[in-house]
């Protein structure tokens, strides 16, 4: 095998090599890291981040970005949690609210995410505001809306707790199986979402149009693609995914506050970039995004597992992000 061929293989599989090296390095320091319990914890922590990152990937592939993702997660977490508290909880958000079917607040939260995603899409597609500025503005607006809702009488900005077991089990802490070999429901949900997103990316007209818009928006317009309509749909779908992630985050943690989701969008963007989603648009895969999420989860969980300071974890994450973007830009320059 030629040196050129070896270099191509390494380049094409760089993120997978990084993930394997991380796991091996941590396992050498502490072999228990490769046990079933650790793997289950890594997958559990990756589930919500995966759904957020998949939503962000839609936007990045079009050549845009989304800074409002984390705040949408926070808003939808608060909305779902506020409607799913047990009846005898002393500080109920809605004291007189009867027990609703769990699916009702879940669908409401997803719908709210979809709505704000649509607003992002309209601002970007119709008002022609750059995605960075558009989503920066809606990020602030959404946080304000969430804070007003969270401060409503009689809650007055108190953390929302006492969530119903039928909500926290199926959407957060529950699992199939028993003991260390059980599979958390949220991991299954994340995998189902990943499969659906893969189908959208690879088997639908929307997916093909998304890649075309990210590759060259003007060429996409000339070829007959309705760029505005597609962007609105893409941002809306991303918003719905953030809404689902907010529901899962509330169920996983057993509560919610208006500060939930803070900076989640940066972790999602970083995971996408490390996973091979191009910052210039037009390139990105679902397996790459999943690997990017796993890399950062392994960094967070694995380095904490072996006692590495959180400050060093930030430094390592920063180096990986810069290296990934530099590598991406180098590939883009070579193509040009």
The end-to-end distance, rounded to whole angstroms, is: 28 Å
Runs with pLDDT <50, length 5+?
none
Shape: globular
Tell me the number of helical segments per DSSP (H or I, 4 or more residues long).
14
In terms of DSSP E residues, the strand content is under 5%
Rg, alpha carbons: 21 Å
Number of strands: 2
Report mean pLDDT, rounded to a whole number. Answer: 90
Order of the strands making up the biggest sheet: 1-2
Main beta-sheet strand count, sense and barrel state: 2 strands, antiparallel
Category by helix and strand content: mainly alpha
Q: What order do the SSEs take from the amino end to the carboxyl end, as H and E?
A: HHHHHHHEEHHHHHHH
DSSP helix fraction = over 70%
């Amino acid at each position: 095998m030629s040196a050129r061929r070896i270099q191509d293989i390494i380049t094409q599989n760089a993120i997978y090599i990084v993930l394997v090296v991380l796991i091996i390095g941590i396992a050498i320091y502490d072999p228990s890291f490769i046990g079933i319990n650790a793997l289950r914890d890594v997958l559990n922590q990756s589930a919500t981040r995966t759904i957020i990152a998949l939503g962000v990937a839609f936007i990045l592939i079009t050549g845009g970005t989304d800074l409002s993702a984390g705040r949408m997660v926070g808003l939808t977490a608060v909305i779902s949690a506020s409607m799913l508290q047990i009846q005898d909880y002393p500080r109920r958000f809605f004291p007189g609210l009867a027990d609703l079917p769990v699916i009702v607040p879940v669908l409401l939260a997803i719908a709210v995410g979809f709505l704000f995603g649509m607003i992002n899409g309209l601002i970007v597609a119709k008002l022609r505001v750059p995605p960075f500025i558009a989503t920066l503005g809606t990020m602030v607006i959404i946080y304000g809306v969430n804070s007003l809702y969270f401060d409503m009488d009689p809650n007055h900005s108190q953390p929302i707790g006492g969530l119903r077991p039928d909500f926290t089990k199926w959407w957060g802490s529950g699992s199939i199986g028993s003991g260390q070999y059980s599979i958390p429901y949220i991991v299954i949900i994340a995998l189902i979402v990943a499969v659906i997103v893969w189908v959208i990316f690879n088997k639908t007209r929307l997916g093909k149009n998304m890649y075309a818009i990210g590759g060259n928006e003007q060429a996409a317009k000339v070829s007959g693609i309705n760029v505005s309509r597609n962007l609105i749909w893409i941002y809306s779908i991303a918003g719905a995914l953030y809404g689902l992630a907010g529901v899962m985050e509330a169920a996983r943690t057993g509560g919610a506050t208006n500060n939930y989701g803070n900076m989640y969008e940066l972790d999602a963007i970083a995971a996408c970039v490390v996973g091979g989603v191009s910052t210039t648009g037009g390139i990105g895969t679902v397996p790459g995004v999943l690997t990017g999420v796993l890399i950062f989860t392994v960094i967070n969980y694995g380095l904490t597992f072996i006692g590495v300071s959180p400050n060093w974890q930030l430094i390592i994450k920063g180096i990986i992000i810069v290296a990934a973007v530099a590598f991406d830009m180098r590939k883009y320059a070579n193509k040009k």
